[in-house]
Design brief:
This protein is of the alpha/beta class. The protein has three domains: 211 residues, P-loop containing nucleotide triphosphate hydrolases (Rossmann fold), CATH 3.40.50; 156 residues, P-loop containing nucleotide triphosphate hydrolases (Rossmann fold, 3-Layer(aba) Sandwich); 75 residues, Alpha-Beta Plaits (2-Layer Sandwich). Strands 3-4-2-5-6-1-7 form a seven-stranded parallel β-sheet, sandwiched between helices. A seven-stranded parallel β-sheet has the order 10-11-9-12-13-8-14, sandwiched between helices. β12, α14 and β13 form a beta-alpha-beta unit. Bound molecules: adenosine-5'-diphosphate and magnesium ion (MG). Magnesium ion binds next to α3.
């Protein structure tokens, strides 16, 4: 993405309030992403929109700006509802809408997801929120209980609609929609398109504007290389690839979750810092894996497509296909996670002679022939070891203990020994906090925390190696 120094942003072509435009500018959203550029005029015009674009293309801001544009903060009624497939994605969406709304005072946004106690949610609904984000099952529960009502709803969003259908939310979604006013704007966002999606759109949208952003990539920023291998040598080849390219941060895609676990273990045994992300993880484990990967304490995330869907991972140097996806569209989605926002990206795929037909399908799909390299060209650069720069400390206190990032940073750097520069991301969860620190100071940081107190109390600490 290009940025320029002129004061007017690309967004200023849209009929948005000056507060919203100024905020977009301060968030460094200088230019619209293609999906925003194509969908926002229709969204702001009040049209129903059926939009498809790859993960990471800025869909949240597209509907988030639409919601805020229409919002009347002086009316204390629920005016917008965003349905998401998982709690994690709902949290991401709430966070993004909150950022977009930060210059509009008194905007109340509430997140309602299953797997969390009802009581705090009921309390948060005592004063009606303007915007509700949540998962279909829990939203339905509140609607039935009467703790939420949609009589004043003007905008309904289905985010990651494809995944919600995959997860079997169809019936719940329809029940929620039956409790919403017929006169409303319905926005359907998805990373992929299917016939089922068309059917859903037909039954819940009126004369929708269809927008599909081609899932092809800018060849200047994404380098795609294929290596032909023998089936038995997959893991060894992967290790050679990592030693040759040594990406600081990479996702390795597998087709099956069992394979994810085994491969992450194999990589660990070979001295790499790898973590597996797959559907069998509990939410808490999943949070830990994603936090350690995104705060640079782990260099490799071994994932299935389903587990990695919708994730916003920044600064990814490489995507490696341990196995090719049977679906060329999924292949394009996988590799689209690297080389974002003008950064250079690398997409590497291994294939066996049995999978040649998949290469052909990819070539057809992207309308371009692929580059095949020989594995003999891979060099183990001076026995290079891939070591992530950070380590994660886990602290048994979180939001519920009223802990703030500043408390942790203070506890670590109040003494002169450590400086703020050596501390990385601090991620807060309900009852846990993960803080990334430079690898070299991990023991020292642990010692400092274990000798001091956070908010006047002692908590359990652990280094996650
Ligand atoms: P999607 O829902 O399409 O997968 P997201 O909405 O999660 O994508 O956006 C991906 C990232 O891009 C987020 O970190 C978001 O803050 C950022 N982003 C969105 N729009 C813009 C923009 N116009 N300029 C710069 N960054 C943007
Ligand atoms: Mg999204």
């Amino acid at each position: 993405m290009t940025t320029n120094n002129v004061i007017t942003t690309d967004f200023s072509r849209l009929p948005l309030s000056t507060e919203l435009l100024a905020n977009l500018d301060s968030l460094d959203y200088k230019v619209m992403t293609p999906i925003q550029e194509n969908s926002l005029p229709a969204i702001l015009n009040g049209k129903d929109v059926l939009a498809q674009a790859k993960t990471g293309s800025g869909k949240t801001a597209a509907f988030g700006i639409g919601i805020l544009h229409k919002l009347d903060v002086k009316t204390y009624q629920t005016q917008s509802l965003v349905l998401c497939p998982t709690r994690e994605l709902a949290d991401q969406v709430s966070k993004e809408i909150r950022r977009l709304a930060r210059t509009i005072s008194n905007t109340k946004i509430v997140t309602l997801c299953g797997g969390t106690p009802m009581h705090p949610q009921l309390v948060s609904l005592e004063h009606k929120p303007h915007i509700v984000v949540g998962t279909p099952g829990r939203i339905l529960k509140h609607l039935k209980k009467g703790s939420l009502n949609l009589d004043s709803l003007t905008v309904l969003v289905l985010d990651e609609a494809d995944r919600m259908l995959d997860m079997g939310f169809y019936d719940d979604i329809m029940r929620v929609i039956n409790l919403a006013p017929a006169k409303r704007q319905t926005l359907l966002f998805s990373a992929t398109f299917s016939d089922e999606m068309k059917i859903v759109s037909n039954s819940i949208q009126k004369d929708p504007t269809n927008i599909s952003i081609e899932a092809t990539h800018d060849n200047l920023t994404l380098q795609q290389v294929f290596y032909k291998i023998k089936n038995a040598t997959r893991t060894n080849t992967l290790i050679s690839l990592l030693k040759h390219y040594h990406p600081e941060s990479s996702i390795v895609f597998c087709n099956r979750k069992q394979q994810c676990k085994e491969l992450a273990d194999d990589l660990e045994r070979n001295g790499f810092h790898a973590l597996a992300l797959h559907g069998d993880l509990e939410q808490k484990e999943r949070n830990q894996v994603l936090t350690r990967f995104s705060n640079k304490s782990s260099s490799i995330l071994v994932a299935t497509d389903v587990a990695a869907r919708g994730l916003d991972v920044k600064d990814l140097q490489a995507v490696i296909n341990y196995e090719l996806s049977p679906d060329p569209e999924i292949h394009i989605h996988r590799i689209g996670r690297t080389g974002r926002a003008g950064n250079e990206g690398l997409a590497i795929s291994m294939f066996t002679s049995n999978e040649l037909f998949r290469i052909e399908a990819i070539e057809d799909y992207q309308n371009n022939s692929v580059t095949i390299e020989n594995i003999s060209s891979l060099k183990d650069r001076d026995n290079f070891k891939l070591v992530p720069p950070m380590v994660t400390l886990s602290i048994s206190a979180g939001r519920k203990n009223k802990v703030r990032p500043g408390d942790i940073l203070g506890a670590l750097t109040a003494t002169t020994e450590l400086s703020g520069k050596q501390i990385g991301k601090i991620d807060l969860f309900d009852t846990l906090t993960y803080v990334a620190v430079e690898r070299a100071i991990a023991d020292k940081a642990l010692k400092i925390l274990s000798q001091g107190k956070i908010k006047g109390r002692k908590y359990r600490l652990q280094i996650l190696y």
